[in-house]
Design a protein that fits this description.
Structural class: alpha+beta
Distance between the termini: 42 Å
Largest sheet: 7 strands, mixed
Oligomer: single chain
Strand content: 15-25%
Radius of gyration: 25 Å
Helix content: 25-40%
């Protein structure tokens, strides 16, 4: 099998053109092409007047060795790499204590799935509810301003990624092709097959709900056990005479103790009470950078026209997205984050008296507005006071947003024109905010640190030169975005275990080792493999 790359074709190419391009690149006769399938497809919109589709292809040809020899100097013709995932271990028949997985976001989900596929029958703890029950609680919050602190955008089966655009791409290095394993399992769970070929695949919330349920059924069919509404409130850590520490189990909110020597900690970036438990139990954690900012909304048609020109609306291109970065004069980096084409801004609070925003799209990306977070980098030096000080920093601005919104879970919002002019908004313009339970027009400069406001104001003007209309007066800013990533890292060693507590495997976004669905799923696989290695090496 050969992998052909950088095959460029016009938007309106025929189905036959793909195979014809492969034949032309290889300089072979048509009858020598045995098969040709798309491995990856992307679009190049740098020239809006002549947008092209770029393909990577897997092809089978007659006399492959001769073709390879003839084209050995062509960097776009290579042997297709082996990308199938192979299990690295199997559970021993004498396994006494089952491994535990805390959290059912993408990382916990894939850690549990891999452990189950290897025969380790994990027990999975989720403080929230099953995904459909959780969805009802979340919609209730959006429609009625009734927040369930244990069942919301952050907590419950599927994790925070369930209520997002469902993006399935990442910039992580993945030499073992574990991302392909994640995508393949999603397809088995009824994700659209195109996620295996699109360069920037996404799923959307409604499809994610069904997929999460299907993966749970797979895990259970392999001997895994789910425990919903089971919050882990303490860790049982044994300290030996030489000072080494070994986890021996967890304590649930019900008072039940579950014995275990291997615990995957995949709690997500908002498990603030769990981070306090880690700190109290002297598990090594450290402060790390994160970002905070505001959500911005524009008409999706504006973004489509800016990115695709006359090709806007072409079904092969879909709703346009963007990625923007600016280094402000005050030394702060400002960038777009979690861009949601054709989506909505959603209420993502997990604590009473706080307002948090996030973005979400359905698979169709057919809503009127595009939205993205415009965020500013925050350093540990901005919040001195220990490893948990970043959480206090986040809470401060979430509380400020709650107050600015009127203490009803409405979010504070401001027209971009007013934000740049440094005057409060008294009404919205042509862009209708999508955030539910609603917005309160105000002055957002009181909802973030002054250095962040200054940097965002500067960046919006710069972004307006890159995307015409980005800084249009009627674009809407909604506050605040604080949960871009976890403000702590639960440091681990080369065995994926806590640097000072053996048997505890910090994983995913909540441990500071992932950012997004795909990277979290990949980290879950790596940690599951590490757990399997640890167990099998210790067994007789």
């Amino acid at each position: 099998m050969l992998r052909l790359t950088e095959i460029k074709l016009p938007l309106d190419h025929s189905n036959e053109a793909i195979a014809e391009a492969a034949i032309a690149l290889l300089s072979i006769a048509p009858h020598d092409l045995i098969s040709c399938t798309v491995f990856r497809r992307a679009h190049d919109a740098r020239r809006k007047s002549s947008i092209t589709l770029t393909y990577s292809l897997n092809v089978e040809v007659k006399n492959e060795a001769a073709v390879r020899k003839r084209l050995s100097g062509n960097m776009h013709v290579r042997i297709a790499p082996e990308m199938d995932y192979h299990f690295m271990a199997h559970a021993p028949a004498t396994l006494c204590k089952r491994p535990l997985v805390i959290g059912t976001g993408p990382c916990g989900l894939f850690a549990a799935l891999l452990l189950a596929q290897m025969g380790f029958r994990p027990i999975i703890f989720e403080r929230g509810k099953m995904v459909r029950e959780r969805t009802k609680d979340t919609w209730r919050f959006w429609r009625q301003s009734v927040l369930d602190p244990e069942s919301n955008v952050q907590y419950g089966e599927g994790g925070a990624g369930t209520f997002s655009d469902g993006k399935l791409y990442s910039q992580i290095k993945d030499p073992d092709h574990l991302g392909r394993k994640v995508l393949s399992e999603f397809v088995k769970a009824q994700a659209p097959g195109e996620i295996l070929t699109e360069a920037h695949p996404h799923i959307g919330t409604l499809r994610l709900v069904k997929m999460v349920e299907n993966i749970r059924r797979t895990i259970e069919s392999l001997g895994g056990e789910y425990r919903f509404k089971s919050r882990v409130v303490d860790l049982d850590i044994e300290t030996a005479s030489d000072g080494t520490r070994q986890i021996r189990g967890v304590m649930l909110g019900s008072g039940e103790h579950i014995a275990a020597d291997h615990v995957v900690l995949a709690v997500g970036h908002s498990a603030r009470d769990t981070f306090q438990v880690l700190h109290d139990r002297e598990v090594y954690i450290e402060a790390k950078p994160f970002s905070i900012g505001l959500r911005i909304e524009h008409p999706q048609s504006l973004i489509d026209a800016a990115r695709f020109g006359s090709n806007a609306g072409n079904p092969l291109l879909g709703a346009a997205d963007y990625k923007l970065v600016h280094h402000a004069a005050n030394g702060r980096d400002v960038y777009s984050f979690c861009m949601c084409p054709g989506g909505t801004v959603v209420a993502a609070a997990s604590e009473q008296g706080h307002v948090v925003t996030n973005g979400m799209s359905q698979y169709s990306r057919a809503e009127r507005n595009a939205n993205a977070a415009i965020v500013v980098g925050i350093r540990p030096s901005d919040y001195p006071g220990g490893p948990l000080a970043g959480i206090a920093f986040q809470r401060r601005w979430e509380s400020a947003a709650f107050a600015a919104g009127g203490c009803t879970y409405a979010a504070p919002a401001q027209r971009v024109g007013d934000f740049l002019a440094r005057v409060p908004s008294i009404s919205m313009g042509s862009v209708i905010p999508s955030y539910q339970p609603g917005v309160t027009t105000t002055d957002l400069s009181f909802c973030l640190p002054n250095y962040a406001i200054i940097a965002i104001r500067e960046a919006l003007t710069v972004f307006g030169r890159q995307i015409p209309g980005f800084d249009s007066p009627d674009a809407v800013l909604t506050g605040v975005e604080t949960r871009t990533s976890c403000p702590i890292r639960v440091k681990r060693d080369e065995t994926f275990q806590s640097v000072n507590t053996k048997g505890l495997f910090p994983a995913g976004e909540g441990a500071g080792y992932a950012g997004g669905i795909l990277s979290a799923g990949v980290d879950g696989i790596k940690v599951a493999e590490a757990v399997a290695r640890s167990i099998t090496m210790k067994m007789p």
